Amino acid sequence: MDTTWVVVLGWVAAAVAAFLGLPQVVRIVRTRETAGVALFTWQTMVGLGLGWLSHGIQIGSPQQIVANSVGAIWTTTVLILLIRSRKVNPLRGIGPSLLIAAVLVLADVIFGTTVFGLVMIVPTILANIAQTVALIREPYVDGVSPVFLMASITTQALWTIWGVAVGDAGTVVGSASGALIVLFNLVWWALRRRGLRPLFVKTTPLD
Predict the structure, then answer these.
(1) CA–CA distance from 167 to each of 109, 124, 157, 162, 163 (Å)?
(2) What is the phi/psi pair of residue 39, to 5°?
(3) Angstrom distances, CA of residue 47 to CA of 29, 53, 124, 196
(4) Which has the least CB within 10 A, 138, 140, 179, 207?
(5) How far apart are CA 75 and CA 44, in angstroms?
(6) DSSP string spanning the chain?
(7) What are phi and psi for residue 131, nearest 5 degrees?
(8) In angstroms, rounded to a whole number, what is the distance separating the alpha carbons of residues 3 and 158?
(9) Among 1-10, 66-75, 160-169, which range has the highest average pLDDT?
(10) What average pLDDT score do residues 55-75 get?
């Protein structure tokens, strides 16, 4: 079987994933705005990235190693910007990321790739749900980068296809579940930007 296309696909996915957080960094730095950006989402993304990096090392995938090494730069940058903007204690800000990474690494090393993929679903869903809640409840969503959301869907879809091609259940399960939730977030972001009001927020009537 010709595996050239699989290798190319892996590197394309790696290239997109490596710079996934960059659009969000640019938006925050350019606008000085973090409205609608969920802190827990980025805490979890840092932890997930470290987990994926370890997984890439475990299965000997240079694509995942490169993607998550570079990607950690951007996700960590966004997390630092949010911690500073919201005056969160640095230890409390980074602590959840390290805990999530530790759990994922242990699951991968002890139980293998399939269990890793199943465990990965939990923080992936929680991270995206946290962003969903922010998009639904926050008065403004100006800080959220639509380019980041679109890139997230793209990279998750690419990793899903790559995982199927190489027979890595962990990548397939983790990436496919993430893609579906991010797609929902993108749709909801678009609705908010088109004038949909936030839900579950008390508003004061205008005089």
Answers:
(1) 18, 21, 15, 8, 6
(2) -60, -45
(3) 22, 10, 10, 32
(4) 207
(5) 10
(6) ---HHHHHHHHHHHHHHHTTTHHHHHHHHHH---TT--HHHHHHHHHHHHHHHHHHHHHT-HHHHHHHHHHHHHHHHHHHHHHHHTT--HHHHHHHHHHHHHHHHHHHHHH-HHHHHHHHHHHHHHHHHHHHHHHHH-S--TTS-HHHHHHHHHHHHHHHHHHHHHT-HHHHHHHHHHHHHHHHHHHHHHHHHTTPPPSS---PPP-
(7) -70, -35
(8) 16
(9) 66-75
(10) 90
Residue 30 has pLDDT above 80, yes or no: yes
> What's CA 135's distance to the chain center, in Å?
15
Angle at 143 between CA 137 and CA 149, to 5 degrees: 85
What type of residue sits at position 90? P
Q: Which of 147, 179, 175 is nearest to 28 (CA)?
A: 147
Amino acid at 118: L
